[in-house]
Amino acid sequence: MPSAAVPAGGPWYSYTGRDGDVVVSTRVRLARNLADFLFPSAEKKDEAERVQTLVFDAFSHFENPDDYHLVTTETLDDLGKKILEERGVLDGSGASGIVMKGDGRLSCRVNSTDHVRIASFEPGLNCARAFDECRLCDDGMQKTLQFAASYEFGYLTSSLSDAGSGMKVSIRVHLPSLTFSGEADAVLNDVRAKGLDVFAVYGTGDGYGVSLGSYYDIATASSLSGSEFDQTASVESAGKYLAEAERKFRKRCAENKSTQVRNIILRAFAEAKFSVLLSLKQSVSIVSAVKWGLDSGILQGIDDGVLCSLLYRVQDGHLEFLLKNGNFAFEADIQNDTRLKIERLRALIVQEAFEAVQFNL
What we know:
Blueprint: E1 23-32, H1 45-60, E2 68-72, H2 78-86, E3 97-101, E4 106-110, E5 116-123, H3 127-141, E6 149-150, E7 154-155, E8 167-174, H4 176-180, H5 184-193, E9 196-200, E10 215-220, H6 228-256, H7 258-274, H8 280-295, E11 299-300, H9 304-313, H10 316-325, H11 338-353, E12 358-359
Antiparallel strand pairs: 1-5, 1-8, 2-3, 3-4, 4-5, 6-7, 8-10, 9-10, 11-12
Helix pairs in contact: 2-10, 7-8, 8-9, 9-11, 10-11
């Protein structure tokens, strides 16, 4: 079986960042378009090819060009595209090319919604560093490329909401205590009142959660709302507010509803330990409950980085890749069923990750 341990130099999501008990990750994205070219939705094939050549060439002039991998998407098979979508590098809008750093922390889509979409990921709450990574990449590209911009509107983009700074800032948060206490809607409405958007990450959940696993994305609504500093500051402030609120209600749950909370966490751990097959929906709920138990001090023997990593490792594309490239012995009755083999492999990976978990009861 693949090891649950995270090797040195692993992907960005295998690490724990600041306020990682509540804020799982931070993402900053910059949208840019080359001057004197039509937007991707209107450009012809030869124009798109020219844009990609210019963008790829720009990275060859960076200080450490070997740090970047240049990929033409037509060379990727469907599985490769699916994995990149699960990691947030692709988003289904299409792209003719991708530039990535090895740990996936920084990526650049070419000819998707805009000519260039630079994205940086950070574990935990770290809007400033995610922005700095994007800015350094943007500055490096502007040494050889001219981006479309105007004095009045700022950077020109295919969507009006992305014009101006061209930036979108988002954080992913985990709010099980607020959700269980029935306070999530009120707290998230406070965030919306500050001009930020709120999205359920994995769809609708069951039981105590409205969003599956109580995971939410908090994002800026428009790139026109203030400077880059204003936008990163607003999301950073929302992250701190949500972290304080979640910790407050986590403490209340421990004081007033400890039996119910322990039951949810113990039941999820038992489901993981004794299941032969696990769906993605079940796995997300289990990881959420175990993280809640870890952050509440109910269990130990695992860390937030491993749990964050699991949310990617149990995705269908990642498991299909393991099936395609590994050598696994499955039970005879599921040997010819790819879906069931994926669910079997998912259960084994979750169980291995939880091997050292102990309860503080």
